[in-house]
Amino acid sequence: MADRVYPAAKPGGGPPNFTTKAQLYGATRAAYRPTAPSHRYRRSRCCSCCLWLSLVILILLILVAAAAAVFYFLYRPHAPAFSVSSVSLSTFNLTKGSHLNSEISLQINARNPNKKLVYVYDPFELSLSTGDVPLGQDSFPGFVHGTQNSTLMKFDVKNSNAAVDSAQLGALQSAQNKKSLELSLRLDTKVRAKVGSAKSGKIRVRVSCDGINAAIGGKGKDSSPFGAKCDVKLRIKIFKWVL
């Protein structure tokens, strides 16, 4: 019986080398890189913080507005009122060398119209002028202004041998010929509002009065300035800004 003849094995045959194939696959494959974390979470947190901050500010504004409304209905606050009661011009001389000598007395009435609100004033500083010619300054001590009360403040403004330019000299000579000098004043102070034992912070107050006519040659007699008008402004300072 003839022996079976088996075919010879192919050169390089044998079981496949999986290890080598795996190494080749790993070498050709790109390295794994983790993706960057999404910014959505951070944006969400930022939006939430902004939302809560806006909500807190809105609530605070509502509370402040409610407190202001309650205060207004309880106390009905009114701003103080000021008016010029009298003015007298005892001295008014223009020298040949373009110099001015003047002496003016004024009485200003301060009135507190409130029934429950007391004003506590710092000293007052008054500046007087005619046109663009300064006539001098004076002051009045601070005081406590009771409810529904009026206080008369007296000022004496003196100007000695003050130099004036040609344009100012012409305006002063014209007023001298008309026997009437139109004055303007500015009154500055600080005030606190007081209710019981509670006090507010200090607020700047500026009083501006225009149209004050003083008679020249009246020998110092008081006259009532019927055309005078006074405006009161609260000057609230926020950082470097004055409102």
TrEMBL record:
Main localization, broad class? membrane
| Keyword Membrane annotated | yes
Among InterPro entries, the record links this protein to: LEA_2 (IPR004864), NDR1-like (IPR044839)
Membrane-crossing residue ranges in chain numbering? 50-75
Sequence ranges assigned to domain Late embryogenesis abundant protein LEA-2 subgroup in this UniProt record: 108-209
Places the protein is found:
Membrane
Q: Which GO terms describe its biological process?
A: defense response to other organism
**According to its record, how does it sit in the membrane?**
Single-pass membrane protein
Q: What is this protein called?
A: Late embryogenesis abundant protein LEA-2 subgroup domain-containing protein
Keywords assigned by UniProt, alphabetized: Membrane, Transmembrane, Transmembrane helix
A GO CC term? membrane
Per its UniProt entry, which superkingdom is the organism in? Eukaryota
